[in-house]
TrEMBL record:
Domain of life: Bacteria
Keywords, in A-Z order: ATP-binding, Nucleotide-binding, Transport
MF terms in GO: ATP binding; ATP hydrolysis activity; transmembrane transporter activity
Protein name: ABC transporter ATP-binding protein
Pfam family, one: ABC_tran
A GO-annotated cellular component: membrane protein complex
Domain ABC transporter: 4-231
């Protein structure tokens, strides 16, 4: 199978003598070509959920399947490979490297792994062009607007053509117009290239771009009664 599947996943944290139940028996499947949103109050378990989906954190119980691989069965080396090759992370702040220009932000991982091929450079340029950054390729992050920085981070997340996209509050630092643009870009990538995407958001205006909306409450994930059709 491709995409993400959570099968009765729970996560517990030990806090002194107490055990915090951050995820409580979560089951969910996100198929290729599907864009889902997770909303919910602070502390409800959204970050924990996304970290487990991104193989950054292991579940305490249950099984997580990413593109047919059971994450709990993989060694750290294989987990790193999955993160690098199969998952594109888009975070709240763009986390760009201050001394690299926009083009190099996309190529830095390739550079570290060896030599950047002509083809890879072309791919990076095409991506930046698609995201409206063609005139910004040689600019450093400090000379970009918040929206341009976030679009650079998105281009970077798409660089490896990951089949899974995980976005944690991707619109938090953006104005309304940029926020819509950024989420539309994610939706477009999901639909045109058949990816599976999960977005954690507080921004209800962005839900209309998603296929399904779930609400996290006290570690439980439930489908919401948001009427997406009405939002469109
Ligand atoms: N490393 C940790 N150790 C102990 N408890 C933790 C840890 N990380 C999270 N928690 C607890 O687990 C619960 C879920 O936290 P989580 O960060 O997943 O929620 P969230 O919905 O992402 O919150 P927010 O919207 O504020 O980011 C909270 O009660 C939190 O205090």
């Amino acid at each position: 199978m491709s995409g993400i599947k959570f099968n009765h996943v729970s996560k517990y944290y030990q806090q002194g003598a107490n055990q915090v139940v951050a995820l409580n028996d979560v089951s969910l499947s996100v198929e290729q070509g599907e864009f889902i949103a997770v909303i919910g109050p602070s502390g409800s378990g959204k970050s924990t959920f996304l970290s487990i989906a991104g193989a950054l954190l292991q579940a305490s119980e249950g099984e997580v399947n990413l593109n047919g691989k059971v994450i709990g069965d993989l060694k750290e080396k294989d987990l790193s490979k999955v993160r690098l090759e199969e998952i594109g992370f888009i975070l709240q702040t763009s986390n760009l490297i201050p001394y690299l220009n926009v083009l190099d932000q996309l190529l830095v991982v390739k550079k570290m792994a060896g030599k950047v091929t002509k083809r890879e450079k072309e791919t990076a340029k095409e991506l930046l062009q698609n995201l409206g950054l063609e005139t910004k390729m040689k600019k450093l992050p400090e000379h970009l607007s918040g929206g341009e920085r976030q679009r650079t981070a998105i281009a970077r997340a798409f660089m490896n053509n990951p089949s899974i996209i995980l976005a944690d509050e991707p619109t938090a630092s953006l104005d309304t117009q940029r926020a819509h643009e950024v989420v539309q870009l994610i939706a477009r990538e999901v639909k045109s290239r058949n990816k599976a995407a999960i977005m954690v958001t507080h921004d209800e205006r962005m839900l209309k771009y998603c296929d399904k909306v779930y609400r996290m409450e006290d570690g439980k994930l439930k489908p919401t009664s948001f009427h997406l059709e009405n939002l469109k």
